[in-house]
Amino acid sequence: MLTLSAAPLDLLAAREQMALSLGWHIILACLGVGMPALTLFAEWRALRTGDEAYLVLARRWAKAMGVLFAVGAVSGTILSFEMGILWPGLMGTYGQVIGLPFTMEGIAFFVEAIFLGIYLYAWDRLPPRRHLLAGVPIVVAGIASAFFVVSANAWMNQPRGFDLEHGRVTDVDPWAAMFNPATPPETIHMILAAFMVTGYLISSVYAVGMLRGRRDRHHRLGLLTPLTFAAVLTPLQIAAGDYAARFLATNQPAKLAALEGVYRTGSHVPLTIGGIPVGEELRYCLEIPSGLSLLVGDSPDTVITGLDRTPVPDRPPVAVVHLSFDVMVGIGFALLALGAWLALVWWRRRDLPRSRWFLRAVAVSGVAACCALEAGWITTEVGRQPWIVWGHLRTADAVNPAPGLLVGLIVVLAVYVVLTIGTVYVLRRMARTDRRAAPQEAGRSS
């Protein structure tokens, strides 16, 4: 096996650069999965009902989708280079094992790009139903792309599909690697998260508009459609999170122990909310007696493996993992309450809640969903540390040993600052243009 070493500062720079790139790209990746589905739904409703407001939404979302796809292609390209430049110990040793999902993701990306071009170009050049069908491959390819990338990450948590002989990889089975035991819980959790982030982000934009007095049908549909979409998926996501936690209890117990701050193995383990790790104890937390044992094994007698069964050098950093996990779960239940608020009022009045506090809550839900997404990825990635390939290869042994990785971090940071400013500027300019066109569109709608 290839073993490398780097200065602590370079290792930190490499990890921070990867975290920055992943954290920035993952938002665009989620929009790349969720926006095509929402756009096609709006176009389908326009064709089915003849409601011009849905068609206006579809056209506007499609334009934004094209911009975000182009920017996401840039950040995705940066990530692909970083895998080889920053982590040669991983790719040099295990590239042949995890090459298949990356190849499949590349194919899905090209399919998505081709049909996105057709979809955007052919708005007024194809019959409406054919144009709608041209968007279906975009949805399928976006979901497939997310599946393949996340399956590679799942392999890093549950490595399969190879043997090691004297430190060398042999008997490679790339299909077994891609469909490893962690693939189902991770891919389900991530794809649901992508749709949720998209729904809450888009609805938050229209909530801000409604708070500023724009209460027309366009804004109501722009809020209600993606918000309903996301709210319906939120309880499913919570169930998927429970499935993932049960998986960790059996397959990655050290990560679960870090998530919940469990230091000692035993039964009747409480479910903790909040808290700060001090020494080998979680303090200042709210405890639900036997809650974790019940969630994992449906019985208070279920034994939960604590961090005392993991050597100290192999333990994840509990403070970071536990805090990020609590942030993710807390926001998830807050979004569940928001969806319940909408459902209750709609059931009673067939209308949106009239309180401005509801609009304020929706306005912050997009940012909150993004924060939950980032916290979830921190939980997944930091919870695997100190391993980059769990149980086989440490992160410190996979990093590029060449000096000067801090320079790369600074350069990439500058690139993302420029990308962020440019993306926000283009989207805001498009929004202003659309608002100026709104009177003509309203006239056609009437």
Automatic annotation (TrEMBL):
Q: Which GO terms describe its cellular component?
A: cytochrome complex; plasma membrane
* Transmembrane domains' residue ranges: 23-44, 65-86, 98-120, 132-156, 188-209, 221-240, 319-345, 357-378, 405-427
Q: Where in the cell is it found?
A: Cell membrane
User: Which controlled-vocabulary keywords does the entry list?
Assistant: Cell membrane, Electron transport, Heme, Iron, Membrane, Metal-binding, Transmembrane, Transmembrane helix, Transport
This protein's source sits in the domain of life called Bacteria
- Alphabetized Pfam families for the sequence: Cyt_bd_oxida_I (PF01654)
- Molecular function GO labels: electron transfer activity; heme binding; metal ion binding; oxidoreductase activity, acting on diphenols and related substances as donors, oxygen as acceptor
Record family assignment: Belongs to the cytochrome ubiquinol oxidase subunit 1 family.
Q: What is this protein called?
A: Cytochrome BD ubiquinol oxidase subunit I
What are the leading ranks of the lineage? Bacteria, Bacillati, Actinomycetota, Actinomycetes, Pseudonocardiales
